[in-house]
Amino acid sequence: MTSSPLIAAATAAGIVAAGAVLAFSHMASLFVWASFIGWASYDHSGANLQGLLRSSTALVFGVVMAWCVAAVVAAGTLPLGITLATAVTAAVASFAIVLASATPLLGVVPATFYGFASTFAYVGLAPGASSIEALTRTDTQNVLVTLPISLLIGSALGVAHGWLTKALRGARVNVAPRQAHARNDA
């Protein structure tokens, strides 16, 4: 089957999105909304192997940084009210995020803030998620466990979208990066 690039990309997006929603409906501890953020982050990071690595690393780094903010606040580490402690700790974390962008794997600052914001959304909206008990659990009730998994599944959805788009266009679909093929041909 061969189709125009736009129709192929749109069709592939619809198929992948429908599959994601159906799959996530059977995984109550994971978040389909976060997977769409991971997918978008992969796409805006270049939709290639380097983008996958950089975006995925930055997304998880953002989750870790926001988790640190939430844990500092929940533990009452700073002798401030919750709002002021959150503001101060988020400021320090944001400063660190931008400084860390000098490292190539953490250079996609928007992806880091997608992970950061997603974590704050969950911790701020899910009942009990901001407690020190929830933040230190070792199961899927901890945002540090469940959100990175959801975001990284989204990165994989982005890869699947690209592969399916190529397949619908009638193009050759490479499973391995082009560099790996080049080494095998030599």
Report the major sheet. none
Q: By helix and strand content, what is the structural category? A: mainly alpha
**Cα-to-Cα separation, first versus last residue:** 32 Å
Low-confidence stretches: 176-186
Instruction: Please count the helical segments.
Output: 8
Please describe what this structure looks like.
- By secondary structure, the protein is an all-alpha fold.
- The protein has one domain.
- It has 8 helices and no strands.
- Helix 2 packs antiparallel against helix 5, helix 3 packs across helix 5 and helix 5 packs across helix 7.
Task: Please supply descriptive tags for the structure shown above.
186 residues, mainly alpha, 8 helices
Summed up, what is this model?
The chain is an all-alpha fold and 186 residues long. It has helices at residues 5-24, 32-44, 49-74, 82-100, 109-125, 132-135, 143-169, 178-185. The longest helix has 27 residues, at 143-169.
List the helices and strands and how they pair.
Layout: H1 5-24, H2 32-44, H3 49-74, H4 82-100, H5 109-125, H6 132-135, H7 143-169, H8 178-185
